[in-house]
């Protein structure tokens, strides 16, 4: 099923047999916001302010610009191809199947590791005394929801995104309109570069919605729209929450729960305790987005014969890659039962830098390559923007490279699956 017009003489990504293009541009935009906005924003204002002090505003702006530059590269790539996989398709078209496999498997591993970390966090928030039960039951529920079809998954993602926006938007408005109690400057030495890295990682996640393009109506127009609109909303939301905390939490540099402290000062301790519920809702929304996007990466790798064909099986009627969804769910739950929150998030965030570098390099290559569909969104000064993304992400990777080792087991498993798949040819 094809939606939208086809440019003359273009070769576009073929629809996967069995997939249904049921997700519109607004649903994809909601998924983008859901992928980016996580529970970290509830504690981020204090950490960034402690590191940057009076330069916090510049740090937020700098991180937003860096994230937007990477998102713009993905927007142009997404306007050229409309199949599932996102970075898998982009890197395969530019550099061949090995590069596509590396990008896809690394993003899948990073997403699953982050999902495991958030499962741990969610269980701790909801019922720490029943940690294992919550992890397993939540993982099972998310797997069943995702197997039910993209339509139902998108409705759940959209509803949780609206809740996220309402909760965090309400915090921002309340903090910015109430009487001021400005934060005292931190007494420690400023570390703006560290603050920039921390803030930049809070913006990652926008790369994952590109993986579901094969189920998006008129994907080559919808993907750029969703990326740009989603990042605009996220930037405004983050800026509002951080400014509200800066304006309303006197001990911001020392606060571990700045949003809770802000609500406590404005409305009392009962409302402040509601911040814990808000955090759980935000985490659950992010988990839904991870369960939606990660299996589509396995699907794309299977379709390109980089993983065994079983991972590309589509359920008739529902149009979902059930084997990939169940596999992703099992691995995430298993990792959640044996890992911790901080370790998984750090490794997942660091791996995104490699993916951004690969996609930026793919943009440079595809602009010169013949036989590639024309971009429906052409990034002005695209070569300069992509080069900057490669250089900046490379510099950040030097700082965060140690965390990539934590993906070691998943990378080895991916390599073995690749050898099995290619050995059958």
Topology:
Elements: H1 25-36, H2 44-52, H3 56-78, H4 87-95, H5 97-126, H6 131-147, H7 150-177, H8 192-203, H9 219-248, H10 258-267, H11 269-303, H12 322-338, H13 341-366, H14 382-400, H15 408-423
Helix pairs in contact: 1-7, 1-9, 1-11, 2-8, 2-9, 3-8, 3-9, 3-13, 3-14, 4-5, 4-13, 5-6, 5-11, 5-12, 5-13, 5-15, 6-12, 7-9, 7-11, 9-10, 10-11, 11-12, 13-14
Describe what this molecule looks like in 3D:
The model is unreliable at 1-14 (pLDDT under 50). The longest helix has 35 residues, at 269-303. It contains 15 helices and no strands. 69% of the residues lie in helices and 0% in strands. With 425 residues, it is an all-alpha fold. It is globular, with a radius of gyration of 21 Å. The protein has helices spanning 25-36, 44-52, 56-78, 87-95, 97-126, 131-147, 150-177, 192-203, 219-248, 258-267, 269-303, 322-338, 341-366, 382-400, 408-423. It starts with 24 loop residues before the first helix and ends with a helix.
What keyword list fits this structure?
mainly alpha; 15 helices; 0% strand; globular; disordered N terminus
Number of strands: 0
In helices, the fraction of residues equals 55-70%
Sequence stretches where pLDDT stays below 50 over 5 or more residues: 1-14
Number of helices: 15
* Main beta sheet strand tally, sense and closure: none
H-E order: HHHHHHHHHHHHHHH
* SS strand fraction: under 5%
Distance between the termini: 29 Å
Radius of gyration: 21 Å
Oligomer: single chain
Class by alpha and beta content? mainly alpha
Task: Using the alpha-carbon principal axes, give the shape.
Answer: globular
């Amino acid at each position: 099923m094809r939606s939208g017009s086809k440019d003359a003489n273009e070769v576009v990504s073929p629809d996967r047999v069995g997939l249904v293009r049921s997700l519109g541009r607004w649903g994809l935009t909601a998924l983008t916001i859901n992928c980016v906005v996580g529970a970290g924003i509830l504690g981020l204002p204090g950490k960034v302010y402690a590191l940057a002090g009076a330069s916090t505003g510049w740090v937020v702006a700098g991180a937003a610009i860096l994230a937007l530059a990477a998102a713009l590269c993905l927007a142009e790539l997404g306007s050229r191809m409309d199949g599932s996989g996102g970075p898998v398709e982009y890197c395969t078209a530019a550099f061949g199947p090995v590069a596509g496999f590396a990008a896809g498997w690394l993003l899948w591993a990073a997403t699953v590791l982050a999902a495991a970390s958030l499962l741990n966090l969610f269980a701790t928030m909801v019922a720490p005394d029943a940690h294992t039960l919550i992890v397993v039951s939540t993982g099972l529920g998310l797997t069943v929801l995702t197997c039910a079809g993209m339509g139902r998954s998108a409705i759940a993602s959209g509803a949780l995104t609206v809740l996220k926006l309402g909760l965090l938007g309400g915090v921002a408005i309340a903090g910015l309109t109430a009487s001021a109690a400005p934060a005292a400057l931190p007494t420690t030495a400023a570390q703006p570069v560290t603050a920039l890295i921390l803030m930049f990682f809070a913006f990652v996640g926008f790369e994952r919605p590109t993986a579901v393009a094969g189920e998006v109506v008129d994907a080559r127009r919808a993907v750029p729209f969703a990326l740009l609109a989603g990042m605009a909303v996220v930037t405004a939301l983050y800026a509002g929450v951080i400014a509200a905390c800066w304006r309303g939490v006197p001990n911001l540099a020392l606060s571990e729960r700045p949003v809770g402290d802000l609500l406590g000062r404005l409305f009392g301790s009962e409302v402040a305790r509601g911040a814990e519920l808000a955090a759980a809702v935000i985490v659950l929304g992010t988990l839904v987005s991870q369960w939606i996007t990660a299996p589509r990466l396995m699907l794309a790798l299977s379709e390109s014969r980089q993983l065994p064909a079983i991972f590309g099986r589509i359920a008739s009627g529902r149009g979902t890659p059930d084997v990939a969804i169940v596999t992703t769910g099992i691995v995430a739950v298993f990792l959640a039962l044996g890992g911790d929150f901080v370790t998984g998030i750090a490794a997942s965030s660091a791996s995104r830098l490699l993916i951004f570098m690969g996609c930026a390099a793919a943009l440079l290559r595809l602009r010169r390559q013949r036989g590639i569909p024309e971009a429906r969104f052409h990034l002005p000064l695209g070569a300069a923007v992509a080069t900057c993304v490669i250089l900046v992400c490379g510099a950040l990777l030097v700082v965060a490279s140690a965390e990539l080792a934590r993906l070691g087991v998943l990378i080895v498993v991916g390599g073995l699956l690749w050898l099995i798949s290619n050995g059958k040819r």
